[in-house]
């Protein structure tokens, strides 16, 4: 069984008008996933992540800056600006706690055998959030919080993240860099924000794998990156749990980048990742929504992604 973990509070994170990371993104995904094809999918309400869970990934200073200082500013004035891209509204702190909590809940359900895999339909996204800094629309690193929860609570050691968002997940790389038992692989457009993710960024023991793609790259380059580099590296790592940073802004219609993928490419990549997870770790996969800023393309791609998860769970 595939589960979808979400919470209505994730719609209450409200950057100012015109900001790309708007609540309509998540609503478009939820609307698409509530059609007849997904009737067999179980929907789960996301709890809030605990401070203890956040502190496995982020510094105490960072946790306090989001949940205390910036949250208070947002409550008092309606908006707290962290950087030119990253803001908080009065509902943002709870949204961020629910987004990280969704990944934790998904891990627990998969480890308990209640689900084969899971998709966390949440926002704000997470993969740009570093150990001590929010950036790039991201407050907490949701995927990393789930990964460290899997290690601490469930005793897993070798944990992998595959990230196909069009932007490099500098935050996840930062958090995983010095731990050889944490694996991070990314395809992303380069050059593009945040300017990291060169192929020579390989971590402490080759546990970081970056495959930058040039502007206008499409199906051939994307699948080549997976088949030639990412999937063999993931297989060699022999993960005990696989996470997916599921950003869909590499779609050809996305306004923030220039790659040329279609929804079928994300479905293919998801199936390929799940196939490695089937061989390595009994199919344990949890994905979490990252980017994607054209509403129609985002909804179509998320549905294709969840279809692939459902197929892998049968």
Can you tell me about this structure?
- The chain has 314 residues and is an alpha/beta fold.
- It is 42% helix and 15% strand.
- The chain is built from nine helices and ten strands.
- A hairpin with a 5-residue loop joins strand 3 (80-81) and strand 4 (87-88).
Per DSSP E runs of 2 or more residues, the count of β-strands stands at: 10
Sheet with the most strands, sense and barrel status: 8 strands, parallel
**Spans where pLDDT lies below 50 across 5 or more residues:** none
Give the helix tally: 9
H and E string = EHEHHEEHEHEHEEHEHEH
Task: Please report the distance between the alpha carbons of the first and last residues.
Answer: 7 Å
The 3D shape can be described as: globular
Structural class: alpha/beta
Q: What gyration radius follows from the Cα positions, in whole Å?
A: 17 Å
- Helix % is 40-55%
Strand content: 5-15%
